[in-house]
Sequence to fold (232 residues):
Amino acid sequence: AQTVTQSQPEMSVQEAETVTLSCTYDTSENNYYLFWYKQPPSRQMILVIRQEAYKQQNATENRFSVNFQKAAKSFSLKISDSQLGDTAMYFCAFMTNTGANSKLTFGKGITLSVRP
Amino acid sequence: DSGVTQTPKHLITATGQRVTLRCSPRSGDLSVYWYQQSLDQGLQFLIQYYNGEERAKGNILERFSAQQFPDLHSELNLSSLELGDSALYFCASSVVGSGAHTDTQYFGPGTRLTVL
Fold:
């Protein structure tokens, strides 16, 4: 079974600064996908970024980028030029690629506060 | 807006009662997933349907059941409700649901269930 660990429960960052959120996972599979989802106070789950395990290049979406270290089973999210609207809970998630199903396994989340 | 709709947004009911949560997937998506988000259990996968057929089951109680209809909308039925069933229930949808590279899950706004 896969597990996803987010060990930092809370983080705070000054507006316009850069922050990195950590995530580690455990799996015996070689092909899989990793995601970061954002949950603002509205409680909506919003996809931030996605990484395919077979790709060596780290995914980037505007101000959001990941540092994917497959051997270390680490998948951190870097938010550059933090904005007040980035205040939210962030969840790291794992999805297998075995073909049977594609359920998401989530970490416990980290609460990020962006200070003005 | 993810394109996934869920009704109702809020539901307040009493212990022992039965409720039905409804989800309509994004246009073109064949797979529907149900997740439960509670304070003590975090985000947990309940069940997945693909084109009307059950594909995967997670930590879903026997008191809970789901189905996906020919028009691809899905319903999650919760019966003999207990206080501990109070949670945010999310529906998500994806194109296929087999771990393919296109299988990014997009979430609906959720239904907040309160059991008194």
Q: What stands out?
A: Chain B is about 0% helix and 50% strand.
